[in-house]
TrEMBL record:
Source taxon at top rank: Archaea
Residue intervals passing through the bilayer: 21-39, 45-65, 77-103, 123-150, 162-181, 187-207, 228-245, 251-270
UniProt name for this protein: Uncharacterized protein
Keywords: Membrane, Transmembrane, Transmembrane helix
């Protein structure tokens, strides 16, 4: 079955590309190292293997999100990957579902495949967002509603996503009234440092006005610069909200810090130079 008939925001991992082979190798290494590390802490073999699998998946999603944020530079996504090793392997920060949610949400906004999200994509993101909103925090619902709204108003708009935006907004408000209230907490020095560093480092990437060279996977047409920029803004707003509220059950902000800071560091150290493996 051709999966592209079901979803239009799927991006297959082609192993013929050097950077794709590299991330596959890194995922395998993280899986093994994380499993052995967890096993050394007197955990069972099955639990340790599951720890390794979720760790490897989290690193992959960090890489995939970074590719959405900076599509013109294949290598830049590996800086966030490197930064994520310690939180993923040592501290066990494996927010697989929240990371998957963010990846799909960004793809709806930036259209990295070149195509509008199809009905299956919309329903999948709606269901995942509703689940995370109900189980964790209204932030997921508000960000998703914003993403759908952007997609309904930006170039080549998907008008149905205005309805999806209203639905997610309603779910978010309902969640708050049901007692799922997430408020800004007293933040630690570490969180303040993380907040300031990622904002300062990531802002130049948002302000970059150069036309994108990357093309949509399915269409071969240049990506919409404004849409990608909106995706970047959505990412940093999401990261800021999770740092300020510190929703511990989501375990999301440390890896979002890795993405924003890593992309920012690459911009400072390498700039717009093309780096190939």
């Amino acid at each position: 079955m051709d999966i592209n008939r079901i979803t239009s925001i799927n991006r297959p991992l082609d192993p013929t590309y050097p950077t794709n082979r590299l991330i596959i190798g890194i995922i395998v290494i993280v899986l093994v190292v994380a499993s052995l590390f967890h096993l050394s802490l007197s955990n069972t073999t099955i639990i340790s293997i599951m720890y390794g699998i979720t760790g490897g998946t989290s690193v992959f999603l960090v890489w995939a999100i970074s590719r959405e944020v900076d599509p013109d530079h294949d290598i830049s996504a590996f800086v966030p990957v490197i930064l994520s090793f310690i939180p993923v392997v040592v501290f066990g920060i494996h927010p697989v579902l929240p990371l998957l949610w963010l990846l799909l949400t960004l793809r709806i906004v930036d259209r990295s495949t070149g195509l509008k999200a199809g009905p299956f994509d919309t329903i999948s993101v709606l269901l995942l967002s509703a689940f995370l909103t109900y189980q964790l925090t209204w932030i997921f619902g508000i960000i998703t509603a914003t993403a759908f709204f952007i997609d309904s108003k930006a170039s080549s708009p998907n008008k149905m996503h205005l309805v999806a935006s209203i639905i997610m907004l309603f779910i978010s408000v309902f969640s708050i009234f049901k007692g799922n209230i997430t408020a800004i907490e007293d933040i630690t020095l570490i969180e303040i440092t993380a907040l300031l560093s990622m904002i300062i480092l990531f802002i130049p990437s948002i302000l970059d006005s150069r036309k994108l060279k990357s093309k949509g996977d399915m269409t071969g047409k240049s990506l919409d610069t404004l849409r990608v920029k909106m995706g970047k803004i959505l990412l940093i707003i999401t990261a800021i909200l999770f740092v300020l509220t510190n929703v511990e059950s989501a375990h999301l902000w440390p890896l979002l810090w890795c993405v924003a800071t890593g992309i920012g560091l690459y911009r400072i150290l390498i700039g717009d130079k093309t780096v190939k493996l």
